[in-house]
Amino acid sequence: MERKKISNVFVKLYFFLLPVIANKVEEWKKKKEAILRGEVPPDEDVVTKEEDIYAVNEHESDEEDEVSAMDTGEGSGQSFIAHVPVPSQKEIEEALLQRKKRELLEKYASEALQAEEGQVKQMMGLDT
């Protein structure tokens, strides 16, 4: 009985914090866009400390090219190309986030709540 009470508290907390977090993220995005457009002077904590994880440095790229050239043996005229789809960084992040959400729901939500959620998703056509 105690476990069910705790899981209900976590579910309520999750659904309470979800819109709060979404609002903070939206505020951050708007502030960052305004800074990039030049409408607002940049804050140190927003622009200077933030690292663009999708940026490619020329120096790193050159080193990777040299290593891949040695690995594939480009000097011998042979090359190997793997024809498999490689997920992007965003796809990987989304998959990890979905897995973490699913694990937390399985850990803290009751089976009845999970079944109800599944029924609602199925009715809405969001079954994934």
UniProtKB/TrEMBL annotation:
InterPro entries tied to this protein: Isy1 (IPR009360)
- How far does the signal peptide extend, from start to end residue? 1-22
Segments of this protein annotated with the region Disordered? 58-84
The answer to keyword Signal applying to this record is yes
The record's Pfam families line, in alphabetical order, gives: Isy1 (PF06246)
* Taxonomic superkingdom: Eukaryota
Q: Name one GO biological process term.
A: generation of catalytic spliceosome for second transesterification step
Q: Which UniProt keywords apply?
A: Signal
Protein name as annotated: Pre-mRNA-splicing factor ISY1 homolog
Q: Which organism is it from?
A: Lingula anatina
